Amino acid sequence: MALAAGAIVGTWFWDVAHDRLAVDDALARAFGLDPALARSELRLDQVVAAVHADDRDGLQQAISEAVGRGGRYVHQFRTRGADGQYRWLEAAGRVDLDAHGRAIDFPGVLIDIEERRRLEAERDQAQTLLRSFVEAAPGVVYAKDRQGRILMGNRGTTELIGMPPEHYVGRTDAELLGDPGQAAAVMATDERVMASGRSEQVEEEISFPDGRRAFWLSTKAPLRDGEGAVVGLVGTSLDITDRKAAEAQHREIEERYRLAARATNDAIWDWRMADGHVIWNEALSTLFGHAVTATSAQWWLDHIHPDDRGRVDAAIHAVIDSSSSAWSGEYRFRRADGSYAAVLDRGTVLRGPSGEPHRMIGAMLDLTTRKAAEAALAESEERLRSATEAGDMGFWDVDLVNNVLIWPPRTKAMFGISGQVEVSLQDFYDGLHPDDRQATTAAFAAAADPAVRALYDVEYRTVGREDGVLRWVAAKGRGLFEGDRCLRVLGVAIDVTERRLAEARLKELNEHLEARVLEEVQERTRAEDALRQSQKMEAVGQLTGGIAHDFNNMLATVIGPLDLLAARLGDQDPRAKRYIDMAIDGARRAAQLTQRLLSFSRQQPLQPVPVDANRLVAGMSDLLVHSLGSSVRLQTVLAADLWSTFADANQLENVILNLAVNARDAMPGGGRLTVETANCAQQCAEAGGVPVGDYVLISVADNGSGMPPEVMAKAFEPFFTTKKVGQGTGLGLSQVYGFVKQSCGHVRIDSRVGQGTTVMLYLPRLMAVLDAPPATAEDAPVASSGGQELVLVVEDEPGVRQFSIDALTELGYPVLAADGAAAALKLLDAHPAIALLFTDVVMPEVNGRELADEALRRRPELKVLFATGYSRNALVQDGVLDPSVQLIGKPFSVDELATRVRAALG
């Protein structure tokens, strides 16, 4: 009957004692077996073999446990039927044991549970989905029974209550909330919702466990059973504390706006663009007589003078249709009596999240009274202008209340400013000569001081802003006061340059004769000292240059082979590569030191390039630290967005190093040295002797012994030194002065005895956009291979010559080599395929430049690349490297050689 009803899909009987298994046809089909086997004895493994591989071990274990303990047996597994599909079955049976506890019989049935498993899976999935939804829902999600006990809650509920679910499930708000009044209010709302059977949305004030209070927007609905009866309540709550605060702030702002609109004398308007509705404050009636508080935008436009209407309409819509927010304009607005008032109108566009205009709020100011005053002032100024021009004078008027300066063209000309240029009081101060600024400023302050009310009577020099011309001006004036307040200071100015020049010439004539005699004696003394110092420095320069040449050749035989060795090893031995990199780095530092020695001895050709002073100062920090010693602390202050200048970078490094060493000598007991960079715009004219312009300022300051005025006055003179004989040449600051002047710059020195010295270098700002300088070894692209051109190497130093041959061969070039000019010319005649002459500059008998000239005479198409560690004057003209010369400095790496060879051949 069970089989016929379809609940049981098969039966079995297992005689465990004799290990005989019998099954019916239905079970055989459920296991995908031949039904004929059902009428014969089977082995257990034949039946188990049809079970799904993932369930087989579990089935065998369950059978073993049942046989061992006896009694009821139930187990679920999947079997493959005759159709090849797996289905879920449940085996239920019983194991009978004998008196000794041994299994005798094991009968049982199979039940099809496929549908049940599917329904259980769907149930589990739905429950998981529900749990995920509840946990992911923002805010608080909960359910309560009819008595108000919490049935479940999400993470937000747990955070609000401040305890885990196992502590609050089954309890009411009265038991959980610390505020009884709050709990009673929540439960009353819940009871009302459950009693009415209708959903409600309410705002509730909630107290958190940490004492914080918040506002929540709660949505509550009745919870019904399958028959529709209310059995509880479900709800969600969102924290709206921020929204409530924003609403309160908005109401406060609206109230402030309303009070401000009533308090101001301006006509305040609020234009809602959706429908063109405009709201006005009471000033519209007070100022213009229109007894309305609300109009349309068209009403406002119709009251604008016809000649101004189109312009104003276009201007305000240009702002609205763009991304701008501010608008202002002057126009004529019609009063209620038909007359027109001059007004200044300003407005601000309020936009939505996407930039769309919503509202525009503005204020209309009546300019009628001000316009009349301006007209009267203009008439008065015209009279004053006529009077001063008749007297060849320029007047001036300083409005201290509004910080406004009025100058006619004649007065502007005294400060080198064109007549149409707008000026401010700052232009007056900027135009004063630095030596006269303090006295002139003090005289003006005394004239404007209500307690002094002095007559402003001064003579001062001006430096023309546009033409740079120095002029003398005599100015007189008085202040206008209202009680204890100075409103204006006005007066006249006269150009007295010619008078001053005449006085200066007369004084010069009186002093000239005596000064000339003294100057001739001093000049002869300086010339004799200069000759001696020049001869000494030339000898030092020759010695330094020779040492640098030999040292560079030695470094070339170190850096180059290390570079080749590193390329051969590659990444095979990281430790060896690290040692090689350390050696190359040390050798390169030595090469950089050699270059600085050449530059210091003035054996380096001048090569001006665009210079980033911040990068240059940062790059030489290590050199400065080593040069200053441990007792001097170095500080660098680098300006942001520093301009570029155009100078010889090496010479500029030498200048900074020279100044640093001088500062160190001024601090024998130690101290602080500060190197600072800055952009120095027009205000640099305030510095004595520095014309108006844009400069890159590099200052070197110390807190050492300082210099008295008489020493500071001669500091830049050649061969002047305060050091003991043999301890200084006196060329340090004169070299600084010469380099800065050669670079079209200016240099100032500021020093106080016992407080320290600051030297300021003003290098002109590079305004033009120049081509980048040739790539250096650090930033040039690496050429990993060469070409097929034949290269002739000429080098008298065997080690350098062999490295050059190996490096070029490694790069893929065929190479010929010679140890001097004579052998090189023979090879050049014998090999017409030679494309590049790679020659050292300093060689015995015939130098590299002479060899190149002879080679080019024979082969004009030949390319030439020079290598040198000490150029002398073989490759320079007027101190500057010839742009057509291809040059590589010793020592050099393989990558640098590859780049320069390709550049020369190109």
Automatic annotation (TrEMBL):
Looking at the record, the residues that make up the Response regulatory domain are 790-905
Among Gene3D superfamilies, the record links this protein to: 1.10.287.130, 2.10.70.100, 3.40.50.2300, Histidine kinase-like ATPase, C-terminal domain, PAS domain
Q: Does the keyword Signal apply?
A: no
User: Which parts of the sequence carry 4-aspartylphosphate?
Assistant: 840
Answer whether the UniProt record assigns the keyword Magnesium to this protein: no
Class of the enzyme per the UniProt entry, highest EC level:
transferase
The record's annotation in PANTHER family points to: PAC DOMAIN-CONTAINING PROTEIN (PTHR43304:SF1), PHYTOCHROME-LIKE PROTEIN CPH1 (PTHR43304)
Q: What is the lineage of its organism?
A: Bacteria, Pseudomonadati, Pseudomonadota, Gammaproteobacteria, Lysobacterales
What protein name applies here? Answer: histidine kinase
